[in-house]
Structures are given as C-alpha cells and as structure tokens.
Design a protein that fits this description.
- The chain has helices spanning 6-16, 56-69, 77-81, 84-97, 108-119, 134-143, 155-164, 188-198, 220-223, 252-261, 263-267, 273-288, 291-309, 329-341, 371-387; strands at residues 33-36, 39-43, 101-105, 125-129, 147-150, 171-176, 200-205, 232-236, 246-250, 321-327, 344-345, 347-349, 359-364.
- It is α/β, with parallel strands linked by helices.
- The chain folds into two domains: 17-46 and 290-387, Aspartate Aminotransferase, domain 1 (Alpha-Beta Complex); 56-288, Type I PLP-dependent aspartate aminotransferase-like (Major domain) (Aspartate Aminotransferase, domain 2, 3-Layer(aba) Sandwich).
- Strand 6 (171-176), helix 8 and strand 7 form a beta-alpha-beta unit.
- The chain is globular.
- Bound molecules: pyridoxal-5'-phosphate.
- Pyridoxal-5'-phosphate (PLP) is lined by residues 107-109, 133, 135, 176, 180, 205, 207-208, 236, 238, 246.
Amino acid sequence: MPKLDFLVKDIADLKDSGLYNTIRTLEGANSPWVQIGGRKLLNLSSNNYLGLANHPEMMKAAKDAIDKYGVGAGAVRSIAGTMDLHIKLEEALARFKGREACVVFQSGFLANAGVIPAIIRKEDVIFSDELNHASVIDGCRLTKAPILRYKHNDMADLERIIKENGNYERKYIITDGVFSMDGDIADLKSIAALGERHDCVTMVDDAHGEGVLGKGGRGVVNHLGLGERIDIEVGTLSKAFGCAGGFVAGRREIADWLKQRGRPFLFSNALSPSEAAGCLKAIELLEKSETLVTTLWENSKYFKSAMKEAGFDIGISQTPITPVMLGEANVAHGMSKRLFEDGVFAMAIGYPTVPKGKARIRAMLSAGHAKKDLDYGIERFVKIGREFKVIK
Ligand SMILES: Cc1ncc(COP(=O)(O)O)c(C=O)c1O
C-alpha cells in the first residue's frame, strides 16, 4: 500500500459520518457582505467584530508599512526579526491593556502555545475549564504537567479540585474569557478570588473579549474591573483587531521570560510589518473612539432580540456570539445550506466541536453590519426556521 494511503480511508470516514468540513472560498475581503461562487452573501460567520479587517485606515497603515519595511520581517524575533514596529505594538498593547508589559506572537494560538509551556513545569498542576479553546489545551499538553479539567464555569467544582491538589507548589487556573461556541463569559471574579485564596496563578485567554468587552474594547478583565488580579492575559489580534497575531500581557518579568523561553517567539518568523502596523492602527482607532464597540453591541442586541422574539433559542450568550441552537446536526447543516442558498453565510457547528444534540448555527455580529443587513439576515432566518419547523 502506498505510504499515507490510510488518509484516503480516514477522509472517506469523515465524509460518511457527516463530519467532513467543506471550506468556502471568499473571492474578496472578509467584509459584512462577502462574495462566494460569484454570489454576494450576508456574512454572519466572521470574527471581524469591529469591521477592521478591511477598514480604509487599517489598509493604509499596512500599505505604508510595506513601503517602509517590505513584506516580511526576515527572521525570528530573537535573531534579526524584531523591528521598531513590533516594539511599538507591544508598548501600545501594554498601555491599552493597562499592564506593565506585553509580548506579541504570530497568532493567538501561538501565544497560548508559547506562554503556557514557557512558564508551567511538568511538576506543576493546571486547572483548566473543560470548554477551553484548542490552543489552550495544546499549550497545556506541551507542559507535561497534570491537566485537571473542571466543569464548565463551575466554581464549586474548581474549588473542589484545587483543594484536592493543594500539595502542588505551583498551581495554575486557566480559562477562556469568552467561550467561543456559546458566547458566555467566564466567572473571572470568582477565579481571581480562588486564585488569591489558594495561591494559584490565574490566566485568561481573551480572544473573543479583546475589542469587544470592557472600556473601548479593553477585554474581559477590564470589563469585570479585575485589573492585575488576573495574572496573565492572552489576546488575539486576528478577531476584533482585524489583522493577525496574538499577545501575552502581564508583569514585566513574563514578557522578559517569553523573549528568552517562548518557543514560537524564538523559533518562528516574526509577525509581518504590515500586520504589526495594522494592529497598531487598530489600537489607535480604539483609543480614539468607542463608537465601533458601541455599534457592535447595538447590532448584537438588535439581532439577538429579534431572533428571540421570532422564537429561536439563542442559548446563554452574553456577547455578540449568537448560537442559534438547533439540536440535531442535520437540522443545523440543512438550515445553514438553505441560508446559503438564500444569501446568508452562517456556519453550522456540530459534534465534535460542540456536544452531540447541541448542534447550532453560530451567527457572528459585526459593527460593520448596517441595520438593513441585520434585517435581511433575520428575515431569512425566520423564513428558513419555519421551513425546518424550528419556530412557528
Ligand atoms: C478562545 C480562542 N483562543 C485562541 C484563538 C486563536 O487565535 P488566533 O486565530 O489568533 O490564532 C481562538 C481563535 O479561534 C479562540 O477562539
């Protein structure tokens, strides 16, 4: 049998079980309306929360950076890839987040895969929310430390596990800030208190909170008024910030240490100059005005209340992530396909990304949507929801 032929069967198995993901190709920018297969569709699938991914000022900043710095950083950060742009971005992010220092990585995934194993040793212990993001899980696995999962956002369960493992010298609680499939917010106030009571370092991955929650989009820690009570904040620059990249913010020693021991920092090429310049511009725009964040929240309130009124179950979301709960995967996939035919791009999500019987269409709102865009989406959801007898 030719090498790797087992993949032929594995792929066929995925297709047979309905788990094969067919990836759509966008024929232009990831804006509120996208072109796919020559057709224009309302985009309810992107993480471009603030519409910055193709904002004219962001594009100009990126183009100017290309003129000055070229298209690539040319090396890993620690050899010759650190440009003044990267340093400016780290200083701006530290200021924006109200933290002592910040280190930028090439993505949010790499920020988690960098910081967690750089700090946590195999003789330590990690308490991790059972619904944490894959990058947090992979970062934890790289440490070789025991990973003890607590029930989702269940503080009694977390405290029980902490107490049962009080013998470890160094203990860490790690949670997503906003859970990406349900849009609920971690009980970070209790986590901060538990961390203080039981001497655990606390870390939040705020990928879906950056640019969305808190004053002017400063994130979940700011939103809950926790300041430095959460020790490590990880964020992404690829969602609300509209570019690419990730970061770790906290006390200066974390940044110093990551520049010595963060493997994606040391062994993977730096963020490109255009991305760094785009991110810097995003911070400038957010520091100048809260309008985009306010519009995002107005849009999500408008969409969510209309969907609720129409009779849809939109789950427990507290953020612009809007899961339209449909139960069985075939309903979610069928509705998503019908929405697509009717001009709405909204992805179905089923097992194993979410538990069996909890399939959904995840509608993502953006400040870039106009009210009439939202009405267009709501109208089609209602029409197709009726077709599928999900609502009356
Ligand atoms: C909770 C969470 N953490 C991290 C990431 C990774 O971010 P990035 O796309 O910047 O790698 C994501 C992206 O899906 C996420 O949802």
